[in-house]
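User: tokens in, sequence out, please.
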């Protein structure tokens, strides 16, 4: 249990750091007319195709990518586009309101909506890359980016992303259902640990004298180095890389091999799960490698662009595993959701928000947990009747969408009912 709590804490802190990045990217896009114009141009072919050609062309195109009938339809309909906007909206509401990455629910949501694992992963990576490219304003962060750290880290992350993409594609070619089962298992483990920690954190916060602290769950982390970073930095295994020169006299040093290994792990997870890697980079840099929070933030933003871009395009797009219309719909929905969620935190108690986050993560866990038996039974790894598999899948899908929908309605309702109050605060 102690290991679960420690792992959950690390993942939660990483999710918060990634949410900060997403909120900043969304703000950069929405504050710039040029970026909004680019977004409009990206949406234009989708809308034209959807209105004029989609239904006609759909009958002519192969119904399934790569000839694998277990994969979802590759053609576009307006219904699919609207669904992707709603999924992005819910993820954005979680990110903006809770201050912890809502991207954890995207892959489970897409898979529950009928999009198979490899396509959900590739599409989510492309959505993250599009947001990074459109929202990044690197000149604001140049002072906080350690180029040497970023370049060495990217050597490892590119290697890890290559292996992760290769593994997903290999399993898909072997059997699409095995690929789905593999990705589902990863999400069951990840969401199980994160959900357990979030629930324990919420229950403990309810007993706290301050009633749960701030809306995003507490103070900033990572100001001091722990024992593990000190031990790693004491190992002088060349080549060494120097960083934090502006914060510590003479800077700090660590072996490049630790950076490469960390990057490899981040890239591997990003390519397998479709989460960009940002939620892992922050806790690894701060709590394992001993990089200051200030340098970590800038370097993390820098690496997300390349890690998500390479994994999304180099490992999935060129092989046909990206649903472009889904990615653009999710981007559009998340931009709106993040703004509504972030403003709602001004009128909602932090303890309430933390409770909803625990529920949202556990909903994703239940969804994938109940979907897994049917996938394992499909490849004859376990014995399960079709009727039982269907019931379990039904429970997982509906419990997930009901909980996420209740959360979305609650946040949007809170926002609408408090518009006058929020306008007063802005003034």
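Assistant: Sequence out:
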């Amino acid at each position: 249990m102690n290991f679960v709590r420690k792992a959950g804490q690390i993942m939660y802190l990483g999710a918060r750091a990634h949410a900060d990045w997403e909120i900043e990217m969304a703000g950069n896009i929405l504050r710039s007319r040029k970026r909004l114009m680019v977004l409009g141009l990206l949406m234009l072919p989708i809308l034209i195709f959807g209105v004029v050609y989609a239904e006609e062309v759909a009958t002519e195109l192969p119904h399934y990518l790569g000839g694998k009938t277990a994969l979802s339809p590759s053609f576009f309909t307006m219904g699919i586009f609207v669904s992707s906007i709603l999924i992005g909206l819910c993820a954005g509401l979680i990110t903006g309101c809770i201050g912890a990455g809502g991207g954890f629910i995207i892959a489970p949501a897409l898979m529950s909506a009928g999009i198979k694992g490899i396509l959900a992963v590739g599409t989510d990576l492309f959505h993250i890359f599009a947001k990074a490219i459109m929202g990044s304003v690197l000149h604001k962060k140049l002072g906080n980016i350690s180029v040497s750290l970023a370049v060495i880290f990217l050597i490892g992350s590119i290697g890890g992303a290559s292996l992760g993409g290769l593994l997903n594609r290999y399993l898909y070619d072997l059997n699409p259902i095995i690929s789905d089962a593999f990705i589902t298992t990863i999400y069951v483990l990840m969401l199980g640990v994160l959900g357990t920690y979030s629930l324990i954190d919420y229950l403990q916060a309810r007993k706290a004298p301050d009633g749960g602290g701030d809306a995003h769950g507490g103070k900033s982390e990572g100001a001091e180095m722990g024992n593990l970073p000190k031990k790693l930095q004491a190992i002088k295994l060349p080549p060494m890389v120097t960083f934090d020169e502006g914060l510590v006299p003479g800077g700090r040093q660590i072996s490049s091999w630790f950076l490469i290994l960390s990057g490899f792990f981040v890239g591997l997870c990003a390519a397998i799960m479709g989460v960009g890697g940002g939620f892992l980079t922050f806790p690894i840099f701060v709590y394992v490698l001993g990089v200051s929070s200030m340098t970590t933030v800038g370097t993390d933003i820098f690496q997300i662009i390349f890690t998500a871009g390479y994994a999304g395009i180099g490992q999935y797009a060129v092989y046909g595993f990206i649903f472009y219309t889904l990615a653009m719909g999710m981007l559009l929905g998340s931009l709106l959701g993040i703004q509504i969620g972030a403003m709602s935190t001004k009128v909602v108690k932090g303890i309430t928000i933390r409770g909803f986050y625990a529920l949202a993560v556990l909903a994703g866990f239940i969804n994938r947990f109940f979907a897994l038996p049917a996938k394992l039974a499909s490849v004859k790894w376990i014995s399960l009747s079709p009727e039982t598999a269907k019931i379990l899948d039904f429970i997982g899908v509906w419990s997930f969408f009901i909980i996420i929908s209740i959360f979305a309605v609650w946040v949007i309702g809170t926002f609408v009912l408090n518009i006058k109050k929020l306008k007063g605060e802005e003034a």
